[in-house]
């Protein structure tokens, strides 16, 4: 965008070169103010291509905040810096020269000597007493301020910003630096909170692990969700469970309640009481409230299905001190979740049932339950959760790379 008016520039350059030539014989780059064979390795705030060396000097003088520059003698790339070159890290590079504006006569800038152009504009002298400010870029927004101590960055016209919204949100449009020095107007929209929203965000997403965003008391928190049935109108949300999660109605029964001796139940009892273990590899999360669909066994294996967070056995717990044999374990390690402590366990209605122990690990990631008892005739007893709620784990999240951050199709 920025092209120095050639004629005027040539005049200024010639004038300046002739001044220098009065003192010494110099060729194109042999100004004593330039430090040869070195480059500034810090990020510059503004870059121009295809400039002559003196144009680079003059450009730096014409920018309100420029103190130093480096210049690639092969490509004509001129990079501007806010501080004297001595404040920066430099590296050897035969294609570069470094200069500081303090070493050059400011008169090189003509009427721009005492300009008040804003940081994102360059001064351009139009007569011996007048100048104009040419906008060359936009000031940094969001976290795109790659400069020191809060200095705003200057991004050149046409620069496209990446993520301008905070985590969990995306911009409604591509944000580009406009010619007037303003960024494209945009609003931040929330990323999907469930798999159905993910489907409408980008119809090309298939079954897999995604980062979705749960709204919780005004903040938006990331959660790793397995989206399933994404090619149907019935997309469902699951949590993949890397650790062992199971629910059992024990296949063992007491043969003697005074000695607490157990035996494997006979096939009829196993069939009648539907005894056996269910291992859950994923559990279904209902939308919005992080409530578990306890009966969903799409990703479970079992001979007789036992609901998630449920345990029982076929024993009759009256006048005995023998422990319950049914167990369940909810183990949310390596997931985005912990168990919400408002989740409650209740006994199945039966005089023979017992709920021995429900224990939460200190960080609420693991819940172990020990329950037993039968509901006659031929009905499993023990305990069940009235509702299992998860909540977002504020102290742990799986590896960011283990799931896809949605990219929504913009209108
Ligand atoms: C230049 O970069 C170095 C390391 O990359 C950093 O320590 C130093 O503070 C930077 N200097 C300035 C002036 O930005
Ligand atoms: C650019 O931004 C400035 C300052 O915010 C504002 O005054 C001006 O109207 C904007 N220009 C356009 C074309 O939106
Ligand atoms: C994006 O949001 C801004 C601000 O609300 C609005 O002016 C602009 O028209 C929107 N752009 C698109 C492409 O929807
Ligand atoms: C997944 O989609 C298939 C085909 O539409 C359907 O039979 C099945 O019940 C769905 N599963 C779930 C868990 O919704
Ligand atoms: C759990 O995550 C840790 C890293 O955070 C990893 O080392 C470990 O193997 C994972 N365990 C399982 C069972 O996936
Ligand atoms: C249970 O065990 C006790 C102690 O060994 C024994 O006295 C009793 O006869 C046993 N009862 C049955 C029903 O086997
Ligand atoms: C359940 O299925 C998984 C995967 O097919 C397998 O690794 C696991 O051993 C099975 N568990 C049980 C209890 O059958
Ligand atoms: C349990 O023990 C109590 C007191 O010993 C007794 O009254 C009751 O009948 C016993 N119940 C059964 C079912 O054995
Ligand atoms: C419940 O479980 C905890 C931890 O496993 C254990 O310390 C406690 O003794 C158990 N309580 C009962 C009544 O079994
Ligand atoms: C725990 O579950 C209850 C009941 O659904 C809910 O009101 C509460 O907000 C949940 N807590 C968190 C931290 O998610
Ligand atoms: C939609 O998702 C596909 C594949 O996952 C991705 O390649 C594409 O870039 C996304 N579309 C947009 C507009 O982000």
UniProtKB/TrEMBL annotation:
<keyword id="KW-0479">Metal-binding</keyword>
<keyword id="KW-0732">Signal</keyword>
<dbReference type="InterPro" id="IPR012314">
    <property type="entry name" value="Pept_M12B_GON-ADAMTSs"/>
</dbReference>
<dbReference type="GO" id="GO:0008270">
    <property type="term" value="F:zinc ion binding"/>
</dbReference>
<dbReference type="Pfam" id="PF08685">
    <property type="entry name" value="GON"/>
</dbReference>
<feature type="domain" description="GON">
    <location>
        <begin position="191"/>
        <end position="391"/>
    </location>
</feature>
<feature type="signal peptide">
    <location>
        <begin position="1"/>
        <end position="22"/>
    </location>
</feature>
<protein>
    <recommendedName>
        <fullName>GON domain-containing protein</fullName>
    </recommendedName>
</protein>
<dbReference type="GO" id="GO:0004222">
    <property type="term" value="F:metalloendopeptidase activity"/>
</dbReference>
